């Protein structure tokens, strides 16, 4: 990876990257010279870059930050490796997992893999037995603890109805409306569907798209049992994929430039110019894989993209707060991951059990809520009190760190018109978790959008 200083030197002698033919495709006349650039080294941008590099296309990635990963990046605090927020992957995130392996990752070593389980400490518990899908889920629902027998039957019937409908709704609606339509009463909604919806879509049930939730349930619960596994990373999110991806890209003739912000996108005859702090570079194609607010800013001057910009401007956002607490090394939770019912802390992660970081706990609070009204210190104290009351952890933490991502994801509302990867400007594509796709704002959604852009360029 090159920092901006290094790039500057390099580009002084090479005004713009040399176009390269696509390896071995078609006759000389048919061969197109392509030298794509990618704005943003998050999961979407790096997925696109790996897919292009794999096809022998040398790509240049511009990343404004000093490190890669974007919203899923490693963060060092008090000499402790954290992430920008505690993340988890599902077994059905097939493209993300495939890419991690492609760039040299080892899924066995990189993740703690847990079979599907939803545990709201002392209030609700659902665990999938080792049976084929979707039987594992039905048995899990019928044996769930913390809801009545009648509620368990209703939940199982609901899943069967969704399966019969191929997890497809003729008209999208909110998750709350879908639950009411299928007789999922308040207790069931609060203990099962609401935590699931918030974890998957980062959007409260009264605002969340039922169809997008069903897309996730379809892929996670309905195909193979491994698809519903929960994968908790043992390495930080920069190391997990983007850093390895950078080596993969560079070994194939590409460039990954960190601390290199793109300031403007200017269409020219025969290419697209990118302006960074001191230089301009011309490329055959540009994939804008910056987060939505930055993408809108970069695209706004381009008259042809007025509709795309309007779609991006129309997206609302939802926050995610992660409270990391470093306790003495002997402090541990009963499970690597568990939820709390009607508490500020929605999900707790024991980084000691997951990654050998003993005494390090993470509390995740997804989507909008009253926690946003608290100062960070107050929020951390609430979490400390909850850990004391629920698990008897009496000692105070050595330190805490609150990471508040106010625009963690877009608000995944029904019938949302998300911008497509292909834009009205030839050669300019859009990648990112907010672009059109089946998935909510997730790593897999981001990766899928990047792969689609790469396919559009190399097609
Ligand atoms: C706290 C938190 C928890 C989450 N938990 C989960 C989870 O458990 N599971 C899950 O699947 N998803 C989770 N997500 C969502 C997931 O992180 C995102 O969907 C995904 O990382 C988005 O990737 P992206 O590449 O689309 O965008 P980003 O990660 O935002 O990447 C965009 C990149 O562009 C760069 N950039 C910006 N401006 C410029 C510029 N002008 N020039 C060059 N580069 C620029 C940025 O620095 C960034 O690196 C979570 C998100 C957050 C914030």
Structure described in brief:
The chain has 459 residues and is of the alpha+beta class.
Written overview of the protein:
With 459 residues, the chain is α+β, with helices and mostly antiparallel strands. It is built from 16 helices and 22 strands. The strands form 7 sheets. It has a 5-stranded parallel sheet, covered by helices on one side. The protein has a 5-stranded antiparallel sheet with strand order 18-19-20-17-21. Strand 3, helix 2 and strand 4 form a beta-alpha-beta unit. The N terminus is likely disordered. The structure holds flavin-adenine dinucleotide (FAD).
Write out key terms for the chains shown.
459 residues, alpha+beta, FAD/NAD(P)-binding domain, Polyamine Oxidase, Chain A, domain 2, 3 domains, 5-stranded antiparallel beta sheet, 16 helices, 22 strands, 35% helix, disordered N terminus, binds flavin-adenine dinucleotide
Low-confidence stretches: 2-31
C-alpha geometry: globular
β-strand amount: 15-25%
Total strands: 22
Number of helices: 16
Name the strands of the widest sheet in spatial order.
12-4-3-16-22
Just name the CATH architecture of the largest domain: 3-Layer(bba) Sandwich
Q: What's the CATH class of the largest domain, please?
A: Alpha Beta
Cα(first) to Cα(last) distance is: 28 Å
> What structural category do the secondary elements indicate?
alpha+beta
Give me the Rg, rounded.
Answer: 23 Å
- Please identify which CATH superfamily of the largest domain we are dealing with: FAD/NAD(P)-binding domain
Mean pLDDT: 92
Largest sheet: 5 strands, parallel
């Amino acid at each position: 990876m090159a920092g901006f200083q290094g790039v500057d030197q390099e580009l002084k002698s090479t005004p713009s990257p040399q176009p390269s033919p696509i390896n071995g495709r078609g006759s000389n006349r048919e061969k197109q010279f392509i030298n794509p650039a990618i704005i943003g080294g998050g999961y979407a941008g790096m997925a696109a870059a790996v897919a292009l590099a794999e096809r022998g296309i040398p790509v240049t990635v511009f990343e404004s930050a000093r490190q890669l990963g974007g919203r899923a990046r490693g963060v060092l605090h008090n000499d402790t490796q954290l992430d920008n927020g505690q993340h988890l992957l599902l077994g059905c995130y097939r493209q993300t997992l495939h890419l991690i392996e492609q760039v040299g990752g080892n899924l066995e070593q990189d993740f703690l893999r847990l079979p599907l389980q939803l545990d709201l400490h002392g209030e609700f518990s659902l665990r999938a037995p080792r049976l084929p899908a979707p039987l594992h889920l039905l048995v899990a629902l019928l044996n769930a603890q913390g809801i009545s027998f009648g509620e368990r039957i209703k939940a199982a019937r609901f899943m069967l109805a969704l399966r019969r409908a191929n997890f497809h709704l003729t008209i999208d609606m909110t998750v709350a409306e879908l639950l009411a339509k299928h007789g999922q009463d308040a207790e069931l909604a609060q203990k099962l569907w609401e935590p699931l919806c918030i974890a998957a879509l980062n959007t409260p049930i009264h605002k969340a798209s039922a169809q997008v939730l069903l897309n996730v349930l379809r892929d996670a619960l309905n195909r193979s049992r491994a698809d519903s596994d929960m994968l908790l990373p043992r390495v930080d999110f920069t190391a997990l994929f983007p850093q390895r991806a950078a080596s993969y890209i560079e070994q194939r003739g590409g460039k990954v430039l960190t601390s290199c912000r793109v300031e403007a996108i200017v269409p020219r005859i025969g290419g697209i110019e990118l302006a960074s702090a001191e230089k301009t570079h011309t490329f055959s194609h540009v994939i804008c894989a910056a987060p939505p607010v930055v993408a809108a800013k970069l695209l706004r001057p381009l008259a042809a993209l007025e509709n795309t910009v309007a779609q991006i401007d129309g997206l609302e956002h939802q926050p995610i707060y992660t409270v990391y607490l470093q306790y003495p090394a002997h402090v541990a939770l009963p499970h690597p991951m568990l939820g709390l019912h009607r508490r500020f802390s929605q999900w707790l992660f024991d980084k000691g059990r997951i990654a050998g970081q003993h005494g390090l706990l993470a509390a995740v609070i997804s989507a909008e809520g009253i926690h946003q009204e608290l100062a960070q210190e107050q929020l951390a104290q609430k979490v400390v009190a909850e850990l004391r009351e629920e698990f008897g952890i009496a000692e105070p933490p050595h330190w805490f760190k609150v990471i508040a991502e106010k625009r963690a994801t877009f608000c995944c509302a029904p019938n949302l018109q998300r911008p497509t990867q292909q834009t009205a400007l030839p050669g300019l594509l859009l990648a990112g978790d907010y672009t059109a796709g089946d998935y909510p704002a997730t790593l897999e959604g981001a990766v899928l959008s990047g792969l689609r852009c790469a396919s559009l360029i190399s097609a």
